[in-house]
Amino acid sequence: MSYSFNFTKNSLVNIEPASTRKRYRDSGGTSSVHGLGLEVTKTGTKTFNFIQKVNGKNLQVTLGRFPEITVEQARRLAREVVHKIASGVNPNEEKRTARNYTTFEQLFEYYEASFKLDIKAGKRRESSLKGHEILYRLHIRPKLGKRTIDNFAKDEAKTFLQNILAKKGYSLHNHSLTLLKSMFNRADIENNPFATLKKIDESVFRRERTLSKEELCRLLDSLEQEEPIYQDCILLLLLTGQRKSNVLAMEWSEINKDARTWVIPVNKIKTKKPHVVPLSHEAMKVLERRSLEAEKGQQYVFPSTRSATGHIADKSGIGGFWNRITKRAGLYDPNDASKNLQVHDLRRTLATYQVTSGGSLQATSRLLGHSNIGVTASVYAHLSVDHIRTELEHTTRYMLSSPSETELNRIKAEISRLTQTEQAELFRFMQETIGLN
């Protein structure tokens, strides 16, 4: 095998150990990175590294072992090294500095400083760092901040995360695990006690709460007793299907009235490109109402002089407008929080109604701003299948029915499959339409 070739997973897997240490170079592919190499020892250990001449001398930076890190990850790390060297930073010196951090508190300080460099380079978002800072301050530092990392074992890491899971739930468990892994990885500390621990499978706990048509009517009735700003905020949450943080922070500059679109910028979302949200006629009516009340030069659609952010804040706790609205609508249970309607359930409700009414998963995925359709499919695919099954049953009944079967008989059969509530509603409709007694 040539010592220079385009790195792929298969090509690296097929490299056999030799009698002496060998170094292979990534070359010849459209994504190959000059300077990226793979060293293979006599025992078969394969380690990515990057070599570049700095001031006439070769600077070699170890990136990690294959297959623990992939070819794509190694190339990304190599490019980051190039960027650091160009900025006057010696990655090896940076690693040595990181290893001097012995407590979790010091490790997070290094993580924070490193993350800020990524923000300046446009690779990460400031909002992400703020979320990590809050997570660390509230849930990790109180227990681990003063602990030293060199004597922190895997079983202690597992116990810490299990306590979070038991007290705070799977979501906080997974976010904490991700942050702690990243803290060790950024500092290039090999003995990472969190490295092999796994996230909780969220699909097991995934909430599937949506509003029935009757519950939706109750919610809308309850909204009418609120101040207009809260009415309009909840309506846009329901009509756009977007996340609460984005709707609360919606800005007039993001709205294109002519195109009837709302463009959520990259710094407010998880994806790496702006998310374009189509606005329905009803959503535009809400925005037109808000614009009539807006002061000249106002930044936010839902402004607030009492909030530090300049827009209305998340008021889902007791005493907030969401709690007030759901209590009036009978969608709040003080004895069972799992039955309470949550703001995110509005997003799920819109998506569910769209899929069950015949909308495609592709369109629903784009509306929700999911990074790929697989995320949408894992939640809503069964709804799409149910809709297809209903249509299939109509088709098969038609195919297997006798030629003498009349349209009236078909309608009777359809009515017999309705629930009692649906039949009663149909009867009222007939009374109003043709005066049926």
From TrEMBL:
* Cross-referenced Gene3D superfamilies: 1.10.150.130, Integrase, DNA-binding domain, Intergrase catalytic core
Q: Does the keyword DNA-binding apply?
A: yes
State any single GO MF term.
DNA binding
The biological processes this protein is annotated with in GO are:
DNA integration; DNA recombination
**Which SUPFAM superfamilies does its entry note?**
DNA breaking-rejoining enzymes (SSF56349)
Q: Does the keyword Protein transport apply?
A: no
Q: Which residues form the Tyr recombinase domain?
A: 206-393
Record family assignment: Belongs to the 'phage' integrase family.
Q: What is this protein called?
A: Integrase
The alphabetized UniProt keywords are: DNA integration, DNA recombination, DNA-binding
Which Pfam families does the protein's record reference? Arm-DNA-bind_3, Phage_integrase
